[in-house]
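INTERNAL AUDIT FORM
Audit reference: QA-55
Scope: verify that the stored structure record matches its stored sequence.
Auditor: D.O.
Record contents follow.
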Amino acid sequence: MSILWSIVIFGILILVHEFGHFITAKANDVKVDEFSLGMGPKVFGFQKGETIYSLRLLPLGGFVRMAGMEDQDQDQEEPRGFNKKTVLQRMAIIFAGPLMNFIAALALFILAFMVVGVPSNSNIIGEVVSGQPAAAAGIRSGDRIVEINGAKVENWEDIVTVIHEKPGHEITLTLSRDNQVKTVQVTPRKDPSSGYGVIGIMQSWERKGLFSATVLGLQNAYDFTKLIIVSLVQMITGAIAPDVAGPVGVVKMVGEVSRFGLGSLMTFAGILSINLGLINLFPIPALDGSRLVFLSLEGLRGRPIDPAKENFIHMIGFVLLMALMVVITYQDILRLFS
């Protein structure tokens, strides 16, 4: 299931990214020869109008092949070629891919908050984990905890604070269920990883309306973008140890996140989408950010960089990126076994 979810998430994020390039190219009347999802050998494809739509074997990328984009392109003189458009039009086409990833992340956050909701701080139990002390004591989902050991609790934070401090010690919970008061005794077990007391209950969730979900979505998109940028800068400057993951590492993380439900999986997909958008904006050869740098230089100079030299730089960058991906994947596999 982890692999399946990962393929679905990667596929959607890559599709969204390439669709950004595609739809902006079409809007600027650029001839698109092929829209491909995936890399490597073609699995199948079909042609509609002037564009071939294809699915390729490796679900690790995709591309939109436009006339006049490569130096060796036979359509260099195509009047609707990418190379015939203005600098600003070409920059818009390149930037549209990462932009769509940020839009997709925001949409995923908003959808998660509206459909699944956000954790509530109320004192109502959302879920009782089977086989845990709470289930053994007869506690049910929907019960409201009003007192612990005779002291009133008004929110989830109060409940967690008390239970965490009582591993191995019996506590008395006063519950409100169907307008009736019920008292139960339960002994929190000690969680081996944290040392805290836990009884196996989870907080309830509350769905948000469109406006509240949008506000929360924008806040989350901003916070995660800022966090990723700061973390990358700290890794580059050596302030923190490098901590990156490749496809194998992401598959493992997807498996861990999926255990917490659809909302967490959608949020994680949003974070991956922000990562994809940001990384593509880096001025690294073969990425969108590098192409934007070359276009900016063309705008400043008033003439384009030699296409042969630019394509050679992109090719070298692509080879280095593939080598880096191999190294990161190797590290991911080592982590799995360690």
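Auditor finding: record pair retrieved intact. The chain has two domains: 2-116+245-337, 125-206.
Action required: none
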